[in-house]
Amino acid sequence: MAYSEFDIIKNFLATSDLSFSRGGVELGIGDDAAIIKPPLDQNLVVSLDVLASGVHFPSDAEPDVIARRALGVNLSDLAAMAADPLCFTLGLTIPEINENWIQQFADGLSTVARKFNCPLVGGDLSSGPLQIAIQVHGLVPEGQATLRSGAQIGDSILVTGTLGDAAVALLGLGYQSHLDSNLELLGWADPQPLFERYFSPSPRVEFAIGCRGLVNAAIDISDGLLSDLSHILRASGFGAEIEEVTLPFSTTAQACLSEKMLLQACLNGGDDYELCLVVSQDLKDRVFQAAKKFDLPLTEVGIIKDVDGVRLKARDGTMVAVKSDGYIHF
Amino acid sequence: MAYSEFDIIKNFLATSDLSFSRGGVELGIGDDAAIIKPPLDQNLVVSLDVLASGVHFPSDAEPDVIARRALGVNLSDLAAMAADPLCFTLGLTIPEINENWIQQFADGLSTVARKFNCPLVGGDLSSGPLQIAIQVHGLVPEGQATLRSGAQIGDSILVTGTLGDAAVALLGLGYQSHLDSNLELLGWADPQPLFERYFSPSPRVEFAIGCRGLVNAAIDISDGLLSDLSHILRASGFGAEIEEVTLPFSTTAQACLSEKMLLQACLNGGDDYELCLVVSQDLKDRVFQAAKKFDLPLTEVGIIKDVDGVRLKARDGTMVAVKSDGYIHF
After folding, report:
1. What's the whole-model pTM score?
2. Most CB atoms within 10 A, among A56, A98, A289, B273?
3. What pLDDT tens digit does each residue of chain A (330 aa) get?
4. Which chain A residues touch B218 with a CB distance below 8 Å?
């Protein structure tokens, strides 16, 4: 059977698993556009990310992995703004119709969409090199979105989860790192427990919403702690001091990389989709309480200072200026 | 100079020409997400379209043409919903950085963005095969969006402008038509006056807003009158009768194609981005008045009937059932 784009949308995407109804969405998939009605006193937060085959995911990745990753990294942007996921649109270009591929892709999307109560409401499907454009829409009470620009001198810098895991996973999966070409796994450790950290990022949405009103600035760590923290610093007009000894690593990552390479993976590896939060001293305890409530590791790694860029206090106590070497997308 | 994605965004996209401020946009380009605050009693209408090189535009097209076309076809979806353009996001993947290309692309976007007061508020830029994903956001007073599903028996079917022009332009530009392979230009006519009709569609936004509350159903003609009208018919549960003799053609299109091929181009050619409106008899005059106000040709081409699909009353008076052969995107 020859499928038209309309058949595919009807059979695989406009399904109750994926384009389910949800308050705030007046009209979903199937017309020229979707209609959203944000509740009173709520702002709408929107973010669009594109994932290209061979650039943002390995070209031989499984369709459900691509889908989970694509929606996950977009939802991570909503978490950075402390927004509650509302719905998403999808622009999918695929080289050819493969019913099985589409079904698995839709299943992957549905898993994440259901988890975050964030239905598909529209988009576009056509022929072309494999790319996934997703725009997520979230709600946040007026004035409560967390921006990059609110960091103050003396604020603590906190990060969720562990860092560098996705870089280890990529190496373990056999893909070349964009980092130091010397970055390689120690032979005797098994990186497999970290594969899901790359395949299926966990956007820290619940925690971010739980911290509304407590955080001065936030960003999600997509390009490495250094690159992403630098966005906060530039937007806020300050610098930062980070302590190497405090940086949170998983035991698997620690087993897989030398100490020096682990630091590289954390600072510049990217793809972790954890949150970097900047919090004033008097509210820090409450942010840690929120993390505990959601059973999410949270670590203080540094402080906002009136310096240029980022300084790292190394394990031996020396202070070094570090230059961002986060992933540049060209 | 090696440009990073952040340099390009800062220098070419986050400019006052393109990401200008506008009421309803609380936060534009530069954070993890943009923030939109729809005015009270307005709904937000969103539509995402992807244009892939070699599929939706010729791979050798000029960057400003690609940009104008990409934003134009998206705004046409807002016109179909009678929504007022608010802002847009852009997901651009390009194979390599070319400063000159980006500047021209940004200029093309800016021309359309300024015309419709619809600034760029965010998005994503990265390496990959040339594709442009654009999501447009529009405002419409609660309950006044025009859907596909409201057509009633006895309603008139109206179309704006002239049809088939873009198909003629594509042939004139030397690109193969997806239509009947016999579709070819008559040798002695010059299709050049129609090239802009393909390159730079004119979304019928002002007219659509002027007709709010007067129209039972609407769609923009992107895949050909037959295919797009069929979406309305399926959504509304009726059929339609079209009169060939009433179909509006430009003099250039009439000079360039035989009568038979002209009908093909109109019914199945697509890319015209005119509006197809379904209007009850008692409101028809007011819709024609609105068209006159905006100096927009408007033509009655048929009527909604309780029949299956679309019947065409040919020039010789015979009635034929026509099958949709609109562009299928695979």
Report:
1. 0.93
2. B273
3. 466 777 888 888 888 899 999 999 999 998 889 999 999 899 999 999 999 998 888 888 899 999 999 999 999 999 999 999 999 999 999 998 889 999 999 999 999 999 999 999 999 998 899 999 999 999 999 999 999 999 999 999 999 999 999 999 988 888 766 665 567 788 778 888 888 898 889 999 999 999 999 999 999 999 899 999 999 999 999 999 999 999 999 999 999 999 988 998 999 888 999 999 999 999 999 999 999 999 999 999 999 999 999 999 999 999 998 876 555 555
4. 32
Q: Say if the Cβ atoms of B35 and A80 lie within 8 Å.
A: no
Both A275 and A161 in one domain: the answer is yes
- Considering only CB atoms, B127 lies closest to which of A55, A123, A235, namely A55
Set of chain B residues whose Cβ sits within 8 Å of the Cβ of A33: 45-47, 77-78, 80-81, 83, 136, 138, 145
Backbone angles phi, psi at A258, to 5 degrees: -65, 160
Residue B133 to residue A133, Cβ atoms within 8 A: yes
Assigned domain for B48 exists: yes
Q: Which residues of B touch A128 (CB under 8 A)?
A: 50, 52-55, 129, 131
> What is the rounded distance in angstroms from the CA atom of residue A248 to the CA atom of residue A265?
12
Domain hosting residue A184, numbered range: 156-322
Distance between first and last Cα of chain A: 40
Contact B50, B110 (CB under 8 A): no
Q: Which of B38, B91, B145 sits opposite A49 (nearest CB)?
A: B91
Question: Per the domain annotation, does A329 fall within a domain?
Answer: no
Alpha-carbon A68 to chain mean position: 12
Interface contact flag, A38 B31, Cβ < 8 Å = no
By residue count, chain B amounts to 330
Q: Based on the fold, state whether residues B125 and B169 are members of the same structural domain.
A: no
Query: Which residues in chain B have Cβ-Cβ distances shorter than 8 Å to A43?
Result: 26, 35-37
Q: Which two three-digit tokens encode residue A78? A: 């909503």
For residues A62 and A169, membership in a common domain is answered with no
Distance from CA of B201 to the nearest CA of A (A): 17
Kindly state whether residue A150 falls inside one of the protein's structural domains: no
Cα A148 from chain centroid? 15
Strand partners, B122: B89
Report chain B residues whose CB lies below 8 A from the CB of A147. 27, 31
Q: ipTM of the predicted structure? A: 0.91
Contact criterion met (CB below 8 Å) for A45 and B35: yes
Q: Are residues A297 and A165 in the same domain?
A: yes
